[in-house]
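User: You have something folded?
Assistant:
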Amino acid sequence: MENHQMRVAAIQSMAGFGRCSMAVILPVISAMGVQVCPVPTAVLSTHTGGLGDVVLRDMTDYLAPSLEHYKQLDIGFDCIYSGFLGSVEQVDRCLEFFRAYPGALTVADPVMGDHGKPYRTCGPELRGRMGELVAQADIITPNVTEAAFLLGSEYPRAPITAEKAKGMLARLGELGPERVVITSVSLADGSMANLGYDRSRAAYWRVNYSHVPAAYPGTGDIFASVLVGGLLTGDSLPIAMDRATKFTEITVKTTYGFGTDTRFGVMFEKSLHWLRGDNVLTGYSPL
């Protein structure tokens, strides 16, 4: 009997330089023993964070035909994982992927903004439609800014209490997803943490991490990718969060120690072996 190979359709952008989106998703999830099938929403020369005039090719017209081809070939996917979307039409294409594979784990990383501001590629209409994708996803992984956009609430510019964080997680769960993870949350107790919520168990989780005074592109993609790989290979939600937090922290601290240009992303390549190790993960705790 043939062993089953876990397979993910990654509906994401591909930036050639800068270590973000598909450029980190492919190696990270692959290192965890899961096959990644790229479904590019856009191809860019670099990410859009301060590297000059980006060359961008929109791939909207590629998405529907690629899905039809996969269906003709009877290719199955264990997970549909969406990220950067460049238009409202791409939201529709993602929803078609979700519907085509009803047994797959559906993961939406609602890439819309950071630090309280939307990305220039994500206008009001696209932000509004992102809620439709979130409603059909099993898991969502917004940062604090994106969580506020989804909830229609003010971005919290000061650290928040654990109770307020739990309220945000619960309200996001009410939008549809069974599990919610909010990344990079500044808590009132002085800690930085990634927070999770399992609606079916009414369980709230936190994984603290050490903050470094630098910001790198692609860390959210790395976190979400390890989370996906962990869940597909048998992790519970808190263990997958712990694994994703630890690996992201390793890559950030490694890069910070070398002092490289932050625009170039994190130096994850030499740390991929950590994902293949038998790591004991006990850093999670109830929120």
